[in-house]
Amino acid sequence: KLILHYLPEHPKYYPDDALSDRNERFFVSEFIREKIFLFYEDEIPYSTEVAILDFKEREGRKDYIEAEIYVEKESQRKILIGKGGAGIKNIGAAARKEIEAFLEREVFLDLRVKVKENWRKNENMLRSLGYSDD
Q: Is 10 a member of any domain?
């Protein structure tokens, strides 16, 4: 209470109903990334990033979300996809469930795994993924 007395009053930065300053695309990509961390632990996660390429809200139909998972090596891509696509299917199913709960509507989640060698050292790639203050 003592500190509150000294704080200046200021208008609110965000409305009362705002959960975050981040948009739905950010949360969707983080849900997908989280599943990679959970399923693969120390194997791959720190070399992955998720980009939402398309996010279409469709009246009377499932929303369409297209996402690419970037890894740095072909061997990582193969691990994520898994035998017969089982790995990417598991990631997608778990992420979709959480995304639907968050958005409170059904979604069709289209995931792809792409190799982008040394993406973590590429300034343009980092900027396009939101890792720059520019």
A: no
pTM, to two decimals: 0.80
Domain CATH code at residue 67: 3.30.300.20
Q: What is the pLDDT of residue 18?
A: 63
Three-state SS sequence of the chain: CHHHHHCCCCCCCCCCCCCCCCCHHHHHHHHHHHHHHHHHCCCCHHHCEEEEEEEECCCCCCEEEEEEEEECCHHHHHHHHCHHHHHHHHHHHHHHHHHHHHHCCCEEEEEEEEECCCHHHCHHHHHHCCCCCC
| CA–CA separation, 48 and 114 (whole Å) | 10
